[in-house]
Amino acid sequence: MARETTVSDGCTVTILTFPGNEMAAPGDTSTDVDLVARILQNREHEAFRVLVQRYQKMLWGLFWRGTGNREDSEELVQEVFYRAWRSLAEYRPEHKFHTWLYTIAINCLRSHLKKHRFRQSLLLKNSEHNSTALETAADLSGTPDHVLHETETQRLVSHLLSRLRERYRLPLIMHYFDGQSVSLISEMLGVPENTVKTHLKRGRDEIERMIRANPEIEAMFSGPSPGELEIPERGGRT
Q1: Exposed / middle / buried, residue 60 (Cβ in 10 Å: 0-12, 13-18, 19+)
Q2: Does residue 102 surpass a pLDDT of 60?
Q3: DSSP string spanning the chain?
Q4: What's the per-residue H, E or C state across 88-100?
Q5: What domains are defined for the chain?
Q6: Which residue has the higher pLDDT, 4 or 65?
């Protein structure tokens, strides 16, 4: 998969190429702060390309789990990098570039979900009548989540996440998949920490309810019962 987008002055950067498991351009071990400085001081397009390669997988995972739509995910990844390029001068080196970029991504995702809320409700309603969640999850096998090396169970969890309301879906994705702390989620979403904790619990409960309601899905979770479902964590800081 390869997509290109123009960011400035005719410069194009390749997005969604996923070259193996590499997180950055081969041979370039510059820090994010150094790369940003090179871009701002010298308009060095290659430095921005390194940032794209370093973070495109993270963004793809966020948008895929948030939208469940391949085309939307690709467009959102490009939108984030376009906004990042345009606003790099606003970045402050004392803060992590990862967090700065992730905040842009969350804002893009929230705007997208708000814009397409009606379409999402229709899709969920139709899926309840026309197919099981298991069948829909199977349809995801041809999507780039294979590049993310997700297991079948993780792909199914991604599908179940797409069926949650935004207030539950975003905190679950941010905390359990992307390893964001409750305090940072609270700051990014503009809600109290206790609200984030409540939404995390209710989101997990809702996913477990959907699993119990479908024997075919429940059978895919070997070992722990749905009540003990372990959503993949990366740090899981609270």
Answers
A1: buried
A2: yes
A3: --EEEEEETTEEEEES---TT-SS-TT----HHHHHHHHHHH--HHHHHHHHHHHHHHHHHHHHHHH--HHHHHHHHHHHHHHHHHTGGG--TTS-HHHHHHHHHHHHHHHHHHHTHHHHHHHHHHHHHH--HHHHHHGGGGSGGGTTT--HHHHHHHHHHHTS-HHHHHHHIIIIIT---HHHHHHHHTS-HHHHHHHHHHHHHHHHHHHHT-HHHHHHS-SS-GGG-----SS---
A4: HHHCCCCCCHHHH
A5: 1-115 (1.10.1740.10), 117-238 (1.10.10.10)
A6: 65
Residue in the structure block whose two tokens are 């179940």: 160
pLDDT at 143 (0 to 100)? 46
- What are the pLDDT digits (tens) for 156-192? 777 788 889 999 999 999 998 899 999 999 999 999 9
In degrees to the nearest 10, what's the CA dihedral of 20, 137, 180, 110? 110
**Rounded distance, CA 71 to CA 1, Å?**
12
pLDDT of 65 > 60? The answer is yes
- The backbone region for 236, taken as left when phi is positive above 0, alpha when psi lies in -120 to 50, beta otherwise, is left
